[in-house]
Amino acid sequence: MQQLRGEAMKFHKTGENYKTEGYVVTPNTMRLLREHLELTGGQVRTRFPPEPNGILHIGHAKAINFNFGYAKANNGICFLRYDDTNPEKEEEKYFTGIRDMVEWLGYKPYAVTHASDYFQQLYDWAVELIRRGHAYVCHQRVEEIKGHNPPPSPWRDRPTEESLLLFEGMRKGKFAEGEVTLRMKLVMEDGKMDPVAYRIKYTPHHRTGDTWCIYPTYDYTHCLCDSIEHITHSLCTKEFQARDWDDPRLFTLTALRRRGFPAEAINNFCARMEVKVPDFPADESRGSHSVHFSSTVFIEQADFREVTEKGYKRLTPDQPVGLRHAGYVISIQKVIKDPSGKVVELQVSCARADSREKPKAFIQWVSNPLRCEVRLYERLFLHKNPEDPSEVPGGFLSDISPNSLQLIEDAMVDRSVAGAKVFDQFQFERVGYFSVDPDSTESKVRKYYI
Fold it and tell me: 119-217: what CATH class?
């Protein structure tokens, strides 16, 4: 539990969601937050929301540990909420198996809920979205709207009354599966355009039977259920996505339990998915901080070259490097480029440093970074004496360097600097010394080179 109190767990306080990056404040925001605080008393409320369509594996243990652990560390509560919106994939054995694993890991849900508990409310809100012009019934097929750049729906601007009648028809079973969907008029954070809110499924639901033949999607349901249950921190882990920790070939929790792994070992594994980094590498006795370490890390572009050159000691397709402080060595498996030929991703293998020959170099990296604005300053004038007419005939104003300020708007830095105050100073290794700018805001940290 101590790890959950570390740097990685410094989230916003309850009721201060609006101060987080990217939060959209509306005219009703502060009123709703006040009502929320009155109802919850400022209590931390989290949830573990699995889809009951399979056996939990080691990847799910991280999400369980993250949500239940954070709530416990802050004297809060955590819900176990089943995301049961896909009736054709869900079975009762998965419901009982999920709860069994949660309890085996030592956690007791404050309450066990289901997305299906809120089907009527979710439907009513969908109708309200249509009335307000924020949703519409669409006849495009699934294959037509896949990806992040599908063509705009020709039905996006259909009359509100028409969408209301069609949505009611969907509810009454007047259309075939896949024939129509209800889509929201918005662009998701990941770039997805007009995500589907409701689709038709003629499969009896394990709890509601044949009451419904339309079911809400994850994109639509998840945030609304969080709102209904007054969740204060929607904690979602990304380390276990497909082709990663979420690979179905990984160990299931039931198998690990059967093989004798204690629950404490699983919880410790999840809580310790970070590395300790000294605050002052030259004098480690002066303290350290935890840095998040996952399967996705970012490195400097200059630390990779496609061709090994004489004297270049960093990462190339045939030359591994070490990750500084992490104790791991990475080797290139695949180089991925965008259509223009620019390298955008490196797929690598990872091995403990003590199991490999020592690499020629260790490079800096960051995982789950904090995005901030960085200002790099160089000399203001091109000449040593800009006011000297013999050096600068055009006067000192003509001698200002166009490169005296370089602005990096989306720099990635270690999250341990998130709580820094104005004028606090840091050394970014191999780059220089930086200080927190007075222009920084709650939503955007700015640092300038000193």
Answer: alpha beta
Q: Do domains 272-363 and 370-449 have the same CATH topology?
A: yes
DSSP 26-46: -TTHHHHHHHHHHHHTT--EE
Helix (H/G/I), strand (E/B), else coil: 89: coil
pTM higher than 0.70? no
Handedness of CA 367, 368, 370, 376 (dihedral sign): positive
Residues 6+ apart with CB under 8 A from 150: 140, 144, 193
pLDDT category at 433 given cuts 50, 70, 90 is confident
pLDDT digits (tens, 9 = 90+) for 227-271: 999 999 887 755 444 334 444 444 667 766 766 777 777 777 676
CA distance 173 to 117: 21
Nearest to 208 by CA among 296, 136, 123: 123
Backbone dihedral region for residue 420 (phi beyond 0: left; psi -120 to 50: alpha; all else: beta): beta
CATH fold, domain 272-363, is Ribosomal Protein L25; Chain P (2.40.240)
DSSP code per residue over 350-419: EEEGGGSPPPS-EE--BSSPEEEEEEEE--SBSSS-TT-TTT-TT-GGGGB-TTSEEEEEEEEE-GGGTT
Radius of gyration of the chain (CA): 26
The whole-angstrom distance between residue 192's C-alpha and the CA centroid of its chain comes to: 15
Whole-angstrom distance, CA of residue 204 vs CA of residue 171: 14
Q: Is 130 helix (H, G, I), strand (E, B) or coil?
A: helix
